[in-house]
Specification:
Helices cover 27% and strands 28% of the residues. The protein has three domains: 2-89, Rossmann fold (3-Layer(aba) Sandwich), CATH 3.40.50.20; 118-179, Dna Ligase, domain 1, CATH 3.30.1490; 185-365, ATP-grasp fold, B domain (D-amino Acid Aminotransferase, Chain A, domain 1, 2-Layer Sandwich), CATH 3.30.470. It is built from ten helices and 16 strands. By secondary structure, it is of the alpha+beta class. It has helices spanning 10-19, 36-39, 52-61, 74-81, 93-99, 102-111, 157-167, 225-241, 283-291, 315-325, and strands spanning 2-6, 25-30, 43-46, 64-67, 119-122, 137-141, 151-154, 175-179, 185-193, 199-210, 213-219, 246-255, 258-265, 305-311, 331-335, 346-352. Strand 1, helix 1 and strand 2 (25-30) form a beta-alpha-beta unit. The mean pLDDT is 96. The protein is globular. Strands 13-12-9-10-11-14-16-15 form an eight-stranded antiparallel sheet. Strands 3-2-1-4 form a four-stranded parallel sheet, sandwiched between helices. Its EC number is 6.3.4.18. Homodimer. Pfam families: ATP-grasp (PF02222), PurK_C (PF17769), RS_preATP-grasp-like (PF22660).
Length: 366
């Protein structure tokens, strides 16, 4: 079987490394040259996401299409929907269309009965209306943006007035205003939904951020059993509502013992990287299995694991620390092969097979 993926970053790389040993051919498509996926052995097509002729040619080479990157132009996703009867596409393009539009996403959550932060869809026209959300706010671009990009914090009416002065230069800009939730923890659920509708889930992961970028993931999350089960139930209901097939990440805020659904990623997720060394099947293995039509495994029992992102900040120093930790076989290093180490850029991650209490303090310096 020939697997094709739109996107060619580190998530595609890790999918590829699971697929090739199983005898699958792996193809990636993106405008990026010398990509992490290509370096792992993926057969790369370098072309624009908006070149429908190139995409059609790419689809002719493969048996199933998936995604490792959700910021595909909406027009391209709509084009792909016309091929769903010819080339299987997992997850369905509509799940990406919803995920990349923050207003659509939050509205979908509310329709399912989930608690979210209060929100308001801001356009040049709707800016004339009164917004019944108490300050402070986060204003986000409606589409795209990640790791804190495309976001600004608004503390009061004066901040909002300043924001509006430059918000609608073109007149067609769209934003989402969100209530700032003072949460106690952020958690995520990594699940895989198979073609027969069955779902495999690892349980909640606890996540810590620095400068809006994921820093540390702790599995299992330090939360009550009841909240863990509730988060799994909510994420599963979301996956069912999207007719989802593949691995996805679902993020929650925990405040006053209530779960607020924040967002979902229609692909394997950074907070699921711990699964590569959790002494069970990884999120990438499950994704490949789901999209290729295999049945879900009967037993997935991950053990306590930590994941630490390695950024381009002081990269050589981080590498030196990581290599020193490798003397202990409980540590595993995963580098993405990116050419330039830039500040804030995810260059790799390190997993520790054990609990937070057991980890070497140097792990936190990566």
């Amino acid at each position: 079987m020939k697997i094709g993926v739109l996107g060619s970053g580190q998530l595609g790389q890790m999918m590829c490394l699971e697929a090739l040993p199983l005898g699958y051919d792996f193809y990636c498509y993106s405008p990026d040259k010398e990509s992490p996926s290509a370096k792992a052995g993926a057969l790369a097509t370098v072309a624009s996401y908006e070149s429908f002729s190139e995409i059609k040619e790419f689809l002719s080479k493969i048996n199933v299409l998936s995604f490792e990157f959700e910021n595909i132009p909406k027009t391209t996703l709509e084009y792909l929907e016309t091929f769903s009867g010819q080339t299987p596409i997992f997850p369905p393009p509509k799940s990406l269309i919803i995920a990349q539009d923050r207003a659509l996403e939050k509205t979908h959550f509310r329709k399912l009965g989930f608690r979210t932060a209060s929100f308001f869809h801001l356009t040049k026209e709707s800016a004339k209306f009164e917004i019944a959300i108490p300050y402070p706010w986060i204003i986000k671009t409606l589409r795209f943006g990640y790791d804190g990009k495309g976001q600004v914090k608004i503390g009061d009416a004066a901040d909002y007035k300043v924001f509006l002065e430059s918000a609608f230069v073109k007149g067609e800009e769209e934003y989402l205003i969100e209530e700032v939730i003072s949460f106690q923890k952020e958690i995520s659920i990594i699940l895989t939904r198979f073609q027969n509708g069955e779902i495999v889930c690892y349980g909640a992961v606890e996540n810590e951020h620095k400068n809006h970028i994921l820093d540390l993931s702790i599995y299992p999350a330090r939360i009550p059993t009841g909240l863990n089960l509730e988060a799994i139930e909510m994420a599963s209901k979301l996956a069912d509502s999207l007719d989802y097939v593949g691995t996805m990440g679902v993020e929650f805020f925990l405040k006053d013992n209530h779960l607020y659904l924040n967002e979902y990623a229609p692909r394997p997720h950074n907070t699921g990287h711990f699964t590569q060394d959790c002494q069970s099947l990884s999120q990438f293995s499950l994704h490949v299995s789901a999209i290729t039509g295999n049945l879900p495994p009967t037993d997935v029992r991950p053990k306590p694991t930590l994941m630490k992102n390695i950024l381009g900040n002081e990269f050589e120093e981080s590498l030196s620390i990581a290599r020193s930790l490798l003397k202990d076989d409980r540590y595993q290093l995963h580098l993405y092969g990116k050419k330039d180490a830039k500040i804030g850029r995810k260059m790799g991650h390190m997993n520790f097979k054990g609990s937070l209490e057991e980890v070497n303090p140097l792990f936190h310096d990566l």
